[in-house]
Structures are given as C-alpha cells and as structure tokens.
Amino acid sequence: MLIAHLKLFVAGFLATLVFHQGLMAVLHAAGISPRAAWNLTAVPPLGVPQVVSLAFWGGLWAIAIALGMRVSGLSGTWVWVLAGALLPSIVALGLVMPMKGIPVDGKIVVGALLLNAAWGWGVAICLQLMTRID
After folding, report:
1. Is residue 72 exposed (0-12), middle (13-18) or buried (19+ Cβ within 10 Å)?
2. What are the residues whose beta carbons fall under 8 Å from the beta carbon of 65, sequence distance 6 or more?
3. Please, what is the average pLDDT of the chain?
4. Residue 36 carries which DSSP code?
5. pLDDT tens sequence across 59-83
6. Which residues pair with 43 in a beta bridge?
7. CA angle, 11 as apex, 5 and 12 as ends, to 5°?
C-alpha cells in the first residue's frame, strides 16, 4: 500500500512539473497567462520554491483522487483528466483563492480547468509508464 501511494505521489509531483507547468509555459509564451511557469519564489511556511510547493500538492491530490476512484470503481485516463480538472480547481477557486483575497474571474476559471486537466492527463501517463517499468 505504501509503495502504491508513493507511486501516486511521484506521478502527481512529476505531472505538476511537466504537464501543468508545461502548459503554463505555453500559455505564458502565447500571452494568455501573465504568470510564468516554474516560479522559484520562496513561499511560507518552509520557504520552498512555489513550484515545489505546487508539485507537493499535486502529489497529494493524486493520492486523494486515486482513493476516490477506488471507492467509486471508476478508472482510466479520462477519469484522471476530468477529476483532475474539476476537483483541484473547485478547491482552488472556491476556497484557496478567496482565502488569499485573489479575485476569480472567467479567465482564471478556464485557466484552472485547463491546467488541472493537463495535470490529470500527466498523472495518468506517469502511472502508465510506472506500471510498464514494474
């Protein structure tokens, strides 16, 4: 069980760094997003780079979503994409951003859904690759 959770965490962590932040870089380069990818600004409370904090949460989200998938009996890449798009976005847009005083508009909602869907797709791909390595 511990190994399975570790694989999920690693998949979520890597998917954040590659897929989520990769799409963020594309959106920034296209002038769609004002935020650059792979932000190395230190964040409290530990002073780690923002991208590392984000990737850590990506790892935890992968575990949480996998547990939900197990309970519901759902599986597959599209479940990862949809759950990834919706669940972290709902928490970020409905809880985290309001707590931080960050205004939420349509552009932010669409961006969150796209970035988190890319993350979910990345988790599915990472898990498939890890299964082939076993």
Report:
1. exposed
2. 80, 83, 84, 87, 120, 123
3. 95
4. P
5. 999 999 999 999 999 999 999 999 9
6. 48
7. 90
Separation in Å, CA 23 to CA 17, 19, 68, 100, 112: 10, 6, 26, 24, 11
Contact 47, 90 (CB under 8 A): no
Task: Write down the pTM of the prediction.
Answer: 0.94
How far is C-alpha 30 from the geometric centre of its chain's CA atoms? Answer: 21
- Cα 56 from Cα 34, distance rounded (Å): 23
Q: How far apart are alpha carbons 124 and 18 in whole angstroms?
A: 13
Alpha-helix residue ranges (DSSP H) falling in 16-105: 21-29, 50-72, 77-91, 97-100
pLDDT given at position 77: 96
Count CB neighbours of 19 within 10 A: 24
pLDDT at position 134 over 70: no
Torsion angle, alpha carbons of 35, 94, 121, 74, to 10: 180
Give 48's strand partners.
43
